[in-house]
Amino acid sequence: MNTTSTSTTLALRDPWALVPPVGNLDAYITAVNHIPLLTPEEESRFARQLKDHGDLEAAGRLVLSHLRLVVSVSRQYLGYGLPHGDLIQEGNVGLMKAVKRFDPNQGVRLVSYALHWIKAEIHEYILRNWRMVKVATTKAQRKLFFNLRSMKQGLKGQAGEGDTHRSTLTPAEIEVVARELNVKPAEVVEMETRLSGGDVALEPQTDDGEESFAPIAYLADDSQEPTHVLEARGRDELSGSGIARALDQLDARSRRIVEERWLKVNDDASGGMTLHELAADYGVSAERIRQIEAAAMKKMRKVLEAA
To answer: Which domain holds residue 84?
Structure first.
């Protein structure tokens, strides 16, 4: 028995057995290309079984016979740099949606009806994954996104070989694209800028010296970081009302010593009184003034720590 007859026999008994396990894309593409196509009569019969009776086996036969269509359509979108397997997978989702909604009474073949759903699902996948930020949201922007690249290549070809390496469109070419796609020239310029740009990682990708310098290093604003805000608020509290409460816990002599030693700044920038000046003022030794100061500072520290 040859390969074709074997495939046909498998399709009649268990059509799902023709699709190999996920993991080998080449084997998958080879397999789906060997799945037999349905005749118009078979397609109509299976579609009616699904529509009238919810026959999932009939749905499976409709899906399997059109998997090669998804592979063919997905190849048109390889230029966006996304994995071919993912494009096929998304296209298969679109195919299943088409099969579910297909009405055989409309008089059209499933291949014509499914084409829209396959492309729509692939388009959505590309727009979600091509850039970190979505590049097209409105219907006009989506049309511009998927047509600008091919139109750009066509315009360059018309301009001649010497102009094929030019990266941007001329004003005249922008007008042509805008007129063809029914959008504003400014939208063409904006989309061309988006397509020519790329994503930049905020975080460093390596740990090798200057190569690790990334935008996060100079775009981050630490001044509004929550822990820094709380720390600054705490420092302001301690240096203001906190110090005042701590001074209130001291006796008059200890308070004056602390204020003269640490909290006063004279106009001549000479600071407060020295230990010897305070000692002479109170008639004690400079060492005694130092002891009183140390005890006062210890008491103030306890008050501030308890705040």
So the answer is: 3-129
